[in-house]
Amino acid sequence: MRRRDLLARGALYTVLGLGLLVVVGPFLWAVLSSMKPEAEIRRIPATWWPEVFTLGNYRELLSRLDFPQAFANSAIVAVLTTLGNLAFCSLLGYALAKLRFPGKRALFLVVLGTLMVPSMVTFVPQFVMVSNLGLVNSYGGLILPFLATPFGVFLMRQYLLSIPDELIEAARVDGAGELRIFARVVMPLCGPALATLTILTFLASWNNFLWPLVVATTEDRYTLPVALALYSVGQNRIDYGLVLAGAVAVLLPVVIVFVLLQRHFLRGIATTGLK
Amino acid sequence: MTRHRRLGTAAMLAAVLVLGACGRDSGGGGDAAQPVAEGKATGEITVWAMGTEGEKLGAFAQEFMAENPDAKVNVTAVPWDAAHQKIASAIAGRQTPDVSMLGSTWMGEFAKTGALDPTPEGVDRGAFFPGAWDTTVVDGTSYGVPWYVETRLIYYRKDLAAKAGVSAPTTWDELKSFATAMRDKGGAKWGMNLQPGGTGSWQSFMPFAWSNGADLTEGDAFTLDSPQMTEALAYYQSFFTEKLSPPTDLSLQGALEQSFVNGSLAAFISGPWHVSLLNEQGGAGFADKFAVAAMPRKQSATSFVGGSDLAVFKDAGNRDGAWKFVSWLSRPEVQIKWYQTVSDLPAVQGAWSDPALSGDPILATFGEQLKDAKSPPAIPTWEQVAAVIDGEVEKVAKSNADPAATARTMQQRASGIGTGA
Amino acid sequence: MATATATAPAEATAPAGASRPYRIRQGLAGWAFATPFTVLFLLFMAVPVVASLVMSVTDLRSTDLRTPFAVEFVGVDNYARLLDDAQFRRAALNTAVFVVVGVPLTMAVGLAAASALNSGLVRFRAAFRVGFYLPVVTSIVALAVVWRFLLDPEAGLVNNALRVVGVEGPNWLGDSDLALPSIIAMAVWRNFGFLMVIFLAGLQAIPTELYESSRLDGAGRWAQFRHITVPLLRPTLLFGGVVTSIGYLQLFEEPLVMTRGGPLDSTLSVSYHIYNQFGFGNYGYAAAVSYVLFAVIVGLSVLQFRLLGSRD
Known about the structure:
The structure holds three protein chains of three kinds.
Chain A: H1 2-33, H2 38-42, H3 56-64, H4 67-98, H5 104-115, H6 119-132, H7 139-143, H8 150-161, H9 165-173, H10 178-186, H11 191-207, H12 210-215, H13 224-232, H14 240-271
Chain B: H1 9-19, E1 43-50, H2 51-60, H3 62-67, E2 71-78, H4 83-92, E3 99-103, H5 107-112, H6 130-134, E4 137-138, E5 141-142, E6 145-151, E7 153-157, H7 158-164, H8 172-184, H9 202-211, E8 217-218, E9 221-222, H10 227-241, H11 256-261, E10 267-270, H12 273-282, E11 290-293, E12 303-312, H13 319-329, H14 332-342, E13 345-346, H15 355-358, H16 361-370, E14 373-374, H17 382-398, H18 403-417
Helix pairs in contact in B: 7-8, 9-10, 10-17, 10-18, 17-18
Chain C: H1 2-5, H2 20-55, H3 77-83, H4 86-118, H5 125-137, H6 140-151, H7 157-164, H8 179-203, H9 208-216, H10 221-232, H11 234-249, H12 253-258, H13 270-280, H14 283-308
């Protein structure tokens, strides 16, 4: 038994290790290459370790764009969008999964339906709406349209379906109100789902490009990806060094958020009492 | 922002659902150019410009503000990526700036929305390269001025040419023997890179069609199935059947410059931006190894002219100031300074006599070529027709499609799209 | 929110439909919970969706954007035009191949990774999780730079590796037979980490007692996987399958940055076709294609709900 376990473990590590190599290898190359001069990045065959080590790409990005401002805009937009999604999507997800109310099925189908509408088709009407509401070039215009994401509702509903009804019924018997049940009984059980929703929403918002580009009409409202695109992709040339350095600069905070959330992710499960 | 129009979209939509669609105004009425007030510019002028232009224009405009102390130019830099989408959305939401830089092939589409202000009287069209000016003219009315231009030339390796014993080609026949010699005697794997289809390959192909006397349109009709077009397609195809040109798009894989630098590619067609790219990637001394040559002659030696125009929007809050800023940017001396700031080639012919441009042999060749360079017609459907040409050129280059049949397909597909008139 | 906090009466435990006041109270609570989302949803999703639906039955072009109400109503003409659009047919075929091959592949890799990390055998789980998730979070433009170098026919890492074993690798992205498979590989590589995270959340909700008791009954790991993991993971698998299918049916970014839909339209997807049509300014037609794609997505999702779903 123990030997089989050991073998299984060995095989597992080998497969996972190889997988990790395949997945992370390109990133290592991207990170290393962001510290090469442009000519070396483009050289064929490509080099792994920089022959000429330079921070020039980063220095150029920092000197050309208002990094603190763009970073702050991205952070404000991503954090508020994430908080809003956590609140609104879990509220509706809970109602759809656990409460009976008239119009529930229709509401679910409509929300699920819009999840399937290709986003390109609603782009211009959405912008006209934001424009008519006077939200162009405001944080409201950058955030509000992303607070009602059908995806989040779908995710929360699916997860909440797996929570036993008995828990909720028991709380009702104890005389708890619906909001109290939601906040004190149900939400603490949703750690993994909320962590997942946080990661996905934060990332989607953080990496979003087209919407902030169109809604922000002055540079002081540009988010990080928009500001970075300003210098790396020209009409007739792409500056790979700046692209890679920009990608690393965008990626870093996200990886940090992800690593931090990992812990909560695990703690969330530990405190649910399910384990 | 537009307070009186803060009508809920829902309400308008409901109205449309009830009333049904109202149908287009027939004709729409010719736009009449309004004069611009005399005197200095005043007030805030909001400007959108893409990429490097957007990055540098703000500081560059200081001088304009010094001349016009009551005016304030606010430039927003817009990434090239999706700039078209941003402007289209801004038009739909009525959130346009006063002035915007527009890609020269976008003019037909945006002018047709009715969002652009016709160029006022007093702007001297003769000052600009004619091919560039044509990009601003939609249905006989001009909607802006060319800001900077670019045109396509042949880049070739001088050292390989010397080894192969050939000099820069001047005719179609010479180009073919030039490419053959570069490959057979010069030691290159590919004698000449022509774009084998894919986005933008019309810019590589059309110079041959134009040089052979073919035209894209006559009046409102396409003329893509002319014998001249077929002949140009056949000539283009021969570079692929004779294995002179690589069948895969080197530029898409980011390998064009490297192939040229390492000598496996002897020549290619591109615009002025490649000078700095090659110098960066070729390293020290590479500048001595390449040169540029004008497009080879058949009936004519015509190239493609692209670049960007400057347009003022009808919804501009400061129309007069906007046009004053645009005409300031079109002054020859300002165009020279702008070239020195961002290396954009001046669209104003007068600027080219300056030694900064005429003294450089490579730039001088570009300047010469600009005198015989065409742009596609400024029609709103151009991007779609261009994609048809790109797709059909790809079939000619890669699947050995018959040139005459291809020309007919191009004509048929383009006619299906129409000129949007 | 007052209704939501109201104390539920004792008969709350009564079978459904037992008490009218209880049902009303729950109905009010339900809508109170739903309202914040629904208001924003109506404004920023529902109205634009309806507007775009209207768009799809008009001949709206980008040249009409300033006067969107001055267009002609063309009924189903845009939809009828689809049938004659050879490029659309090619795009539909490419997309179908991409979905049919790509979705199961991505789900299998994602589930394998999640199961491995959840098995309790592996340490440094966080490192693996972050590693596998990296492609999901990185901008596609940067990935494209890397992948182009990996797949370069002359000097790419992939063909260099093949050369070591004596095989001359093909031109992955330049060959019209191999470009789509290459795009599928890239999509699996890029997206399986997303499913891994979703599946992990689902796996961790499965009580470990179940595994322990089945082990006492002598069940092997494979049997446990089949009889405990898969059935209990069903809602999560359904979610993952639906979301991945929805995403994959809208394949767009990979061909945009890697191949521009070529060579010879071999990687042109339906979404790319829509993107092109919007770019060309054919808003009405592009909207119609979008809603055909929408119908297919709905159809596939319903099918998946039927096959994988329980009573929901």
